[in-house]
Amino acid sequence: MSPRPSTRPLPAVRLDGRQTYDYRNIKISFGTDYGCCIVELGKTRVLGQVSCELVSPKLNRATEGILFFNLELSQMAAPGFEPGRQSDLLVKLNRLLERCLRNSKCIDTESLCVVAGEKVWQIRVDLHLLNHDGNIVDAASIAAIVALCHFRRPDVSVQGDEITLYALEERDPVPLSIHHMPICVSFAFFQQGTYLLVDPNEREERVMDGLLVIAMNKHREICTVQSSGGIMLLQDQVLRCSKIAGVKVAEITELIQKALENDRRVRKEGGKFGFAESIANQRITAFKMEKAPVDTSDVEEKAEEIIAEADPPSEAVSKPVLWTPGTAQIGEGIESSWGDLEEEDEEDEGGSDEVTILDSVKMETEDQNVGNHIGDDTPIVLSDSEEDEIIILEPGENPKKTRTQANCQQGKVPSKKAIRKKKQQPAD
Amino acid sequence: MAGLELLSDQGYRVDGRRAGELRKIQARMGVFAQADGSAYIEQGNTKALAVVYGPHEMRGSRSRALPDRALVNCQYSMATFSTGERKRRPHGDRKACEMGLQLRQTFEAAILTQLYPRSQIDIYVQVLQADGGNYAACVNAATLAVLDAGIPMRDFVCACSAGFVDGTALADLSHVEEAAGGPQVALALLPASGQLALLEMDARLHEDHLQQVLEAASQAARDVHALLDRVVRQHVREAALLLGD
Q1: B56 CA to chain A: closest CA distance, Å?
Q2: Residue B4 in domain
Q3: What are the two backbone dihedrals, phi and then psi, of residue A420, each rounded to the nearest 5 degrees?
Q4: Which of A95, A374, B29, B235 has the fewest Cβ atoms within 10 angstroms?
């Protein structure tokens, strides 16, 4: 997005046609198990999986369950991701997600307690980045919260000292109690804060000055703010970003609710659900581009401008013939003349496509080559084959098809540009 | 913590301060003779020590050297005795790593790194006693240490934390106030231009209160700046006296 020196003010459009505050398409699909989901933000894909386990609680928090988040940057996500290298980015993302989801207390950890001081649920959220096309934070936070909302833990009952853990067949699993859904919104800063883009894709991330992440929920409560990349912010920029984030989060929360509702309905009605169902629609064999609306109203004017300013194309002259002795000259893929050799008496078609036939010739010996050399401009006859006619094709002419037989007449007058060289009779 | 009032009806906090009041700050520069620059700061009960080495040639991998700027390398560590419980913290700890990254981000923005291409500046910060506002104390100590080392900076980098309780913004949180679980903001400011080098916020805060909290934190950072400025001038005066000018 660079400012162009033109008389007309251009509408600000990003590389992929989005406006400055537009998100890419978000697609949420669920797996067959509860607590498994894939979130696609444009082409960035994150897989989230929630699992649970009964453990002893932490010593200083005996009545609270344990939440554990882990984001992994899979090596398939981007060429630069290697097992040891990406530690800075990984630490930053993990800490941001932890602060966003844990410190904001979106999950009621007290409800995860089974027996105080002895047994609590440990909820583990594993996020895997499958494809990196920018803005990992947003996609990961959406995946985490969707997976947590989708997850069902096994039902537990306590009788005295006995804890009974019911299997999935005995009792329906219980959803987690979630207070609110914090969602991260990323802002990329360019040119010392002049330009502010929401949801940067991978290319924009490479050239941005810095990133500001604001996590909010739909009640307009800010859960986390994190600035990174060494940008200098002003207070009013932060306040402006928080307002934009509020709007975006409301939209995304609605989308999440709809997706969860759809999945719940499909499972209840006994329809098919799971990743296989959602992936099948994408038809791997067909390339499909998502359409982005582009303003084409003044395309003609712009095109005229460009054409007027551009240089006219230079005259390109191609020389398919090598003008040096001793080089083999092979037929250039034009129509084969083998069939014509047998039809020597047949008149060729005058008015139809005229194609010059070049016979394939073999390499001349040096003596004959030297002898054949007439001048720089004239083509050199190279062959001592029986067929005598060699028509050299030059660009810009209408090639003519001619009979090339040793003993047959040269029936056609060659076109004015074709240079016809009589074959020198080979020495006996 | 049940029964603990963070802000009483008369407007006093747990340690008797008012809402916008900072804790007592005492700082000293040139604490170590060996290092290029060093500083020690006490913000209430939070004690932090910062040491700067540099600018010097790249240690380790030469390939990481930047052709047009200096590389700023920050390491943060908390002493095992710094918190209420003695806790052994491994070196590659995620939280320590994150703090190091944040310090690096803060100082890369403030130090004039273009003056020292292909060099490295090391900033090591150690927290000796953690009583809330760890990040802020580290940044303030590191600023003084960088100034002591004579490395040119755009401006002081002053940091402070702030919170929000009962509709009032509190400046410079202590450990008790942090542990209560309310919203907390940590902010690093370049006072002359008012630009934020780093902004970090945790826990739920309604959007309408954001401005109030940011204002309180900025004002507190400016108060810290006034204090640090005085410390630096005092130090320079002492050094000049010793040199016999």
Answers
A1: 22
A2: no
A3: -110, 130
A4: A374
In a domain, B81, yes or no: yes
Digit-coded pLDDT (tens) for A5-38: 445 555 678 888 888 888 999 999 998 888 899 9
pLDDT(B52) > 80 = yes
Query: Which chain A residues contact residue B101 at CB under 8 A?
Result: 88, 91-92
Asked if the model's pLDDT at residue B144 lies above 90, the reply is: yes
Q: How confident is the model at residue A229 (pLDDT cuts 50, 70, 90)?
A: confident
* β-bridge mates for residue A37, sequence order: A30, A48
Q: Phi-psi bin for A57: left (phi > 0), alpha (psi -120 to 50), beta?
A: beta
Number of domains in chain B: 1
Query: Which residues 4-43 of B are in CB contact (within 8 Å) with A?
Result: none
Chain B residue with Cα closest to A87? B97
Please judge whether A234 and B109 are an interchain contact, meaning their C-beta atoms are less than 8 angstroms apart: no
pTM of the model: 0.73
Alpha helices in B14-157 (DSSP H): 94-110, 134-149
CATH number at residue B169: 3.30.230.70
Decide if A89 touches B, using CB distance below 8 A. Answer: no
Q: Give yes or no for residue A337 having a pLDDT over 70.
A: no
Half-sphere exposure of A126 (CA within 13 A, CB side): 7
B108 inside 8 A of chain A by CB: yes
Inter-chain residue contact A105 with B203, CB threshold 8 Å: yes
The answer to whether the CB atoms of B200 and A235 lie below 8 A apart is no
Separation CA A297–CA A303 (nearest Å): 12
Indicate the burial class of B49 (C-beta count within 10 angstroms; 0-12, 13-18, 19 or more): buried
Q: Find all residues with CB under 8 Å of B31, minimum gap 6, and list them.
A: B38, B39, B40, B49
Domains contained in chain A, CATH given: 26-275 (3.30.230.70)
What burial class does residue A286 get, using C-beta atoms within 10 Å of its C-beta: 0-12 exposed, 13-18 middle, 19+ buried? exposed
Chain B residues 150-189 with a CB less than 8 Å from chain A: 181, 183, 185
Q: Which residue's structure tokens are 């009041």?
A: B21
Residues of chain A contacting residue B178, judged by C-beta atoms under 8 Å apart: none
Q: Do A227 and B200 touch (CB under 8 A)?
A: yes
**Residue B9, domain member (yes or no):** no
Helices (H), A310-354: 338-342
Question: What is the per-residue burial (b if ≥16 Cβ within 10 Å, else e) of A109-141?
Answer: beebbbbeeebbbbbebbbbbebbbbbbbbbbb
| Residues A298, A12: Cα–Cα separation, whole Å | 15
Classify strands A66-73 and A119-131 as parallel, antiparallel or unpaired. parallel
**Min distance B107 CA to chain A CA atoms (Å):** 8
Asked, for residue B12, whether it belongs to a domain, the answer is: no
CB atoms closer than 10 angstroms to residue A168: 11
Q: Containing domain of residue B29, as a range?
A: 25-243
CB neighbours (10 Å) of residue A308? 7
For A198, the token pair is 């929401």
